[in-house]
Amino acid sequence: MHHILVVEDEAGIARVIDRGLKAAGYRTTVVGDGLAALEAVAEADVDLVVLDVGLPRMDGFTVLRMLRTMEDPVPVIMCTARDSVEDTVSGLESGADDYLAKPFRVEELLARVRARLRKPASATTEAQQISAGGVTLDLVAHTAAVEGRPVELSAREFALARTLMEHAGQALSRDQLLDRVWGFEVTGASNVVDVYVRYLRTKLGSSRITTVRGVGYRFES
Fold first, then answer.
1. Hey, which residues does 4 pair with through a beta bridge?
2. CB atoms within 10 A of CB 26
3. Distance between CA atoms of 163 and 157, rounded to whole angstroms?
4. Same structural domain for residues 12 and 107?
5. Residue 178 CB: number of other CB atoms within 10 A?
6. How far is CA 45 from the centre of its chain?
C-alpha cells in the first residue's frame, strides 16, 4: 500500500484530501507545517508528498528544495491557491513533479497521484546520447551541448529538449508534451509548455524549435 504524506495547514482541506486518499486505498500521514513535513519524510517510508505552498514555519517551496537534496527524492505534487504561470514555473523549477491549483476536485488530485506513482519505464537504453540539429544531450551525464559548446539546462528543460529531439522533425502538441514531460493527465496548464519552450529557444537557439500553428512545436533536425 502506497504511503502518501499530506502537508496542509488548513484543517478542512486536509481532512477532505485525507479521506479521498484513504477511500482510494492509500495510507496517509497528515502534517500541518513545513518542518513537520521534512521530519515525516526523514522518519517514514513516504512514496509521495502532497505539498501546500503557504505553510507555517517553512513555506512549501523551501520544503521542496530541501526534499530535492535527498539522494532518492520523493515525488511531490504541489497544491496552492496561487495559479499564475509564474508560481507554476517556480514550483516546477524547484523540482515539483506536478502542480495543482486550488480549488480542485479530489478526483483530479487522485488522477495526478496515480500518474506519479506509476512505475517508470526502464531507464536502460542503448543510446547514451541524442543528437539533432547541432544539439547533443548526454543521457548518462545529463549534460547538453550546442555545436560542442556546453549549455546548462534545468532538469525540466532537459526533459523537454529530450522529448522534442527524440521526435525531431515531428510536430508535438502541447498536451503531448505536458503528458510526456510533466505527466499531466488533466490539461489546462499548457502555457507552462510555452514558457519552457521559450527557455529552450534562448539556450539552444530559436531556429531549432519551430511553432506549428494550431498544433504545438517541432524540433528541427
1. 28, 48
2. 20
3. 10
4. yes
5. 20
6. 21
Domain membership of residue 192 (yes or no) is yes
Assign residue 166 the CATH number of its domain.
Answer: 1.10.10.10
Domain containing residue 69: CATH number? 3.40.50.2300
Phi and psi at residue 149, to the nearest 5°: -95, 125
For residues 44-82, b (16+ Cβ closer than 10 Å) or e, as one string?
eebbbbbbbbebeebebbbbbeebeeeeeebbbbbbbee
pTM metric for this prediction: 0.57
Domain boundary among 95, 117, 139: 117
Residue 195 counted as domain residue:
yes
Q: How many domains are there within the chain?
A: 2
- Its domain, for residue 145, covers 129-219
Q: Identify the residue whose cell numbers are 504561470.
A: 85
Could you report the per-residue pLDDT of 91-145, keeping only the tens digit for each? 666 678 888 888 888 998 998 898 888 755 433 334 588 899 999 999 878 899 9
Pairwise CA distance, residues 218 & 171, whole Å: 4
Q: What is the pLDDT of residues 151-172, one digit of tens each?
A: 999 888 998 999 999 889 999 9
- 2 burial (CB, 10 Å; 0-12 / 13-18 / 19+) is middle
